[in-house]
UniProtKB/TrEMBL annotation:
This is Large ribosomal subunit protein bL32. It comes from Candidatus Gottesmanbacteria bacterium RBG_16_52_11. GO terms for molecular function: structural constituent of ribosome. SUPFAM superfamilies: Zn-binding ribosomal proteins (SSF57829). Residues 1-21 have a biased composition (Basic residues). Residues 1-22 are annotated as: Disordered. Belongs to the bacterial ribosomal protein bL32 family. The gene is rpmF. Keywords: Ribonucleoprotein, Ribosomal protein.
């Protein structure tokens, strides 16, 4: 026979155990070029700059016909 728990763990006890197992929130930092909030160490999706250098050209909206 395999071992089984003698009593059921309460919701409160299980919740206290699982409280520390959660995904951490990522901090946002302002872009140095356009001041929009971006995730650190990523290229800014608005202006295309990273570390003061233009990496991607910003997308221009296409005119509808």
């Amino acid at each position: 026979m395999t071992p089984l728990p003698k009593r059921r763990h309460s919701t409160r006890r299980g919740g206290k155990r699982k409280a520390s197992i959660r995904q951490k929130l990522t901090g946002l930092v302002p872009c140095k070029n356009c001041s929009s909030m971006i995730r650190p160490h990523r290229i800014c999706p608005n202006c295309g700059f990273y570390n003061g250098k233009e990496i991607l050209k910003p997308k221009t909206p296409k005119a509808k016909k």
